Amino acid sequence: MDGDIRDGDGLDPFSAPFGSFSLSPTLERARNFALRPDLPPLLRRWAYKLFSHFTKKRGIIFDTEFRGTKRRLFVDEFTHDKWLFRKGVHAEEEELDTLDAYRGRPAVFFDLGANNGYFALYAHHVMDKAARIIAVEPHPRTFRKLALHIALNGAENVTAVEAALGPEEGEATMSISGEDGSNTIAPGREANPLGAVTVPMRPLAAIVAEQGVDRIDLVKIDVEGFEDQALLPYFDTTRRELWPREIILETLHRHIWRRDCLAELLERGYEIAKTNDDNAWLKLPA
């Protein structure tokens, strides 16, 4: 099999035009075959293993489209990129589906722990162009990927903020895991095989005030175990009119929270709409 992966001929992945990173025609056909939804399970597994074998080289970058957005996949650096490249799906499809309820609406959406922008850019795709989308991401390289995807999609209504969220202004030490989705400033999760980096830390209330919004329709927060320190101080100091009407809260690391974020939100009047293994959906009754 032709195993060529067109890697952009040494182009900078942060500035190269969309479409610069592709598979050879043979591998593209193999990928399309492996992703066919009508394949019997055994054949799908065989096709997936074969495609994975011929694309196991490290450092793969691949341009594709997903849910109406342009994506540049850094396959070895982010689990969701790897899923999309090899399986054709995102690991949080259910969470992304939440944004469909805001289709065509000029909503205000805060994506906290935005990573490289899957949620922020899909929100840009489905919401009205007058929507306000604020994507907050602290890790320097991951933030560059977020900015890249905003540029690739011409998403002028997405504002990127480079900061970690915390109870006060200052700096924080971020542990680097080697996987974009697992970098963290949360105590108790300091495993850092690749070291650490100092990042700016800001309270959510300060960012909201800076953006000048008069309401928040939806918050998605995934900050790897620091959700309580990132979110609850906002409720301690902010009037109810500026509380998010809906929250997708990652609860996977609830066991290391200093304050039980979920319990405190319920005490403040939020109701659980649904849960899965990783997240809870909360709504604030009118």
Mean pLDDT: 92
Number of helices: 9
Structural class: alpha/beta
What is the approximate shape? globular
Calculate Rg over CA atoms: 20 Å
What is the percentage of strand-forming residues?
15-25%
Low-confidence stretches: none
Secondary structure tally: strands: 14
Give helix and strand order, one letter per element, not per position: EEHHEEHHEHEHEEEEHEHEHEE
Please outline what is shown here.
With 286 residues, the chain is α/β, with parallel strands linked by helices.
Question: What can you see in these coordinates?
Answer:
Helices cover 30% and strands 22% of the residues. It contains nine helices and 14 strands. The chain has a seven-stranded mixed beta sheet, with helices on both faces. The chain has a three-stranded mixed beta sheet with strand order 8-10-9. Strand 13 and strand 14 form a beta hairpin.
Name its key features.
286 residues; alpha/beta; 3-stranded mixed sheet; 9 helices; 14 strands
Chain-wise SSE layout:
Layout: E1 5-6, E2 22-23, H1 25-34, H2 41-54, E3 61-66, E4 69-74, H3 79-87, H4 93-97, E5 108-112, H5 118-126, E6 132-136, H6 140-152, E7 158-161, E8 164-165, E9 170-175, E10 196-202, H7 204-211, E11 218-221, H8 227-237, E12 246-250, H9 261-267, E13 271-275, E14 279-283
Parallel strand pairs: 5-6, 5-11, 6-7, 8-10, 11-12
Antiparallel strand pairs: 1-2, 3-4, 9-10, 12-14, 13-14
Helix pairs in contact: 1-2, 8-9
